[in-house]
């Protein structure tokens, strides 16, 4: 469908979201260029589990399945969780979700970011030698369409014209397409270059992550305890350990990062109320700053934002990449429909449909997580009352529990 020498889309950033979009568009027969600044590190089964993991919701799994990459992820290292258990350190009440109640095998899967990216990269660049070498502008045909991979490369200039967008790369290559998608993550340089501002706040928290072994089995349960300083999650890994995400005020995070191993394990066990007994081993810790960021628009001319470039949310609900995959599914549908109607995929009225649908849903999700963070992160008496009432209500009222579980699973 592209005009001579012109691509349908340029996707900038091959993280989980950008790589999934490039694979989806190629599968649908579009001609795509994918520009990634860093050659993704290969994933090997013998490697230690990467410290960055995500909880994938069922609709994200469905997308990866449709792209043909889920079987290799599931066969490699995906920890299914069948239960979710949430409670508060200072208010009574507990909330429990069960996959069986929903007639499903799992509520979600804990997967390493790097494994998702690796599986998608394998689909996009099928040859191992090509993957390991830097790929400058080589074309691959993962399905009916074409993906031209530019890696390691960055976009240094964008001409956002009326008929087409032209991106100039750092090696001088000029790519011309109907549409450019910025998927470069939270620090998106293109977002600024396109003049798109964002609103939000710094949580003044960092998420400390590590993998830990516990005295008792994790029971395929995603556990979350709300503490006055921030939530603490224990996510079940396929190898029987848990991946922890411990949101702490900056100074507390710095203190915890500097602790010796035994002191850290003791403090972590205590913070988790020893639900799984003592913490018997822990990997080195890493920390990520936590921020809320919502782009004021997703659209500038023929360019759109997607994934963390458009929205960064608190990890307490484990929804960041799931929202990004919902962006992929929506943009893919909108572009397919445009083609069926013989419309230009980069036309403003086409891209506005994507923006309208995803911006409101992402903003609602982000503000809901923000509200939960404020209510559960406060030690004031009214907040404690609200927490207790909220947990009691949600745990007793089955339809409300179902609504919450559906929202987390990406099923409305
Ligand atoms: C502690 C923590 C826990 C989390 N847990 C969960 C969870 O359980 N569930 C969940 O859904 N989400 C979770 N998230 C969020 C999730 O990690 C992000 O939403 C997700 O990684 C965003 O994917 P992305 O592809 O949009 O961006 P990224 O993963 O940031 O990828 C961006 C890509 O763009 C490339 N890039 C950057 N700049 C350029 C450039 N100028 N040119 C070319 N390429 C560029 C980068 O190299 C990278 O490959 C968590 C986040 C944190 C911090």
From TrEMBL:
This is UbiH/UbiF/VisC/COQ6 family ubiquinone biosynthesis hydroxylase. It comes from Dokdonella ginsengisoli. Pfam families: FAD_binding_3 (PF01494). NCBIfam families: Ubi-OHases. Pathway: Cofactor biosynthesis; ubiquinone biosynthesis. InterPro entries: FAD-bd (IPR002938), FAD/NAD-bd_sf (IPR036188), Ubi_Hdrlase_CS (IPR018168), UbiH/COQ6 (IPR010971), UbiH/COQ6_monooxygenase (IPR051205). Belongs to the UbiH/COQ6 family. Residues 7-360 form the FAD-binding domain. Its cofactor is FAD.
């Amino acid at each position: 469908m592209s005009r001579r020498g012109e691509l349908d889309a340029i996707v900038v950033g091959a993280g989980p979201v950008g790589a999934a979009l490039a694979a989806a568009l190629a599968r649908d027969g579009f001609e795509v260029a994918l520009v990634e600044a860093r050659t993704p590190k290969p994933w090997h089964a013998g490697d230690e589990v990467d410290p960055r993991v995500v909880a994938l919701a069922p609709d994200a799994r469905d997308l990866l399945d449709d792209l043909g990459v889920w079987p290799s992820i599931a066969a490699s290292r995906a920890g299914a969780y069948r239960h979710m258990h949430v409670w508060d350190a200072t208010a009574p009440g507990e909330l429990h979700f069960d996959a069986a109640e929903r007639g499903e095998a799992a509520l979600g899967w804990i997967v390493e970011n790097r494994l998702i990216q690796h599986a998608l990269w394998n689909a996009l660049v099928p040859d191992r030698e090509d993957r390991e070498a830097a790929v400058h502008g080589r074309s691959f045909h993962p399905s009916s369409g074409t993906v031209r991979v530019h890696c390691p490369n960055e976009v240094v200039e964008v001409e956002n014209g009326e008929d087409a967008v032209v991106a100039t790369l750092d090696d001088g290559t000029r790519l011309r397409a109907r549409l450019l998608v910025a998927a470069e993550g939270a620090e998106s340089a293109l977002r600024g270059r396109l003049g798109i501002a964002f609103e939000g706040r710094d949580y003044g928290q960092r998420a400390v992550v590590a993998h830990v072994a516990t005295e008792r089995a994790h029971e395929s349960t995603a556990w979350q305890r709300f503490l006055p300083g921030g939530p603490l999650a224990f996510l079940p890994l396929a190898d029987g350990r848990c991946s922890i995400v411990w949101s702490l005020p900056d100074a507390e995070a710095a203190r915890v990062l500097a602790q010796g191993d035994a002191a850290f394990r003791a403090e972590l066990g205590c913070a988790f109320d020893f639900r799984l007994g003592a913490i018997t081993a822990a990997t080195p810790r890493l920390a990520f700053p936590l921020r809320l960021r919502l782009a004021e628009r997703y659209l500038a001319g023929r360019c759109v934002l997607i994934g963390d470039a458009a929205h960064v949310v608190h990890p307490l609900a484990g929804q960041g990449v799931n929202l990004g995959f919902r962006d992929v599914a929506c943009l893919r549908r909108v572009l397919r429909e445009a083609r069926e109607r013989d419309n230009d995929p980069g036309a403003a009225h086409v891209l506005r449909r994507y923006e309208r649908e995803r911006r409101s849903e992402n903003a609602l999700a982000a503000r809901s997580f923000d509200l939960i963070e404020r209510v559960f992160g406060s030690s004031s008496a009214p907040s404690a009352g609200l927490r207790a009432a909220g947990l009691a209500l949600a745990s007793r009222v089955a339809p409300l529990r179902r609504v919450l579980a559906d929202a987390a699973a990406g099923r409305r």
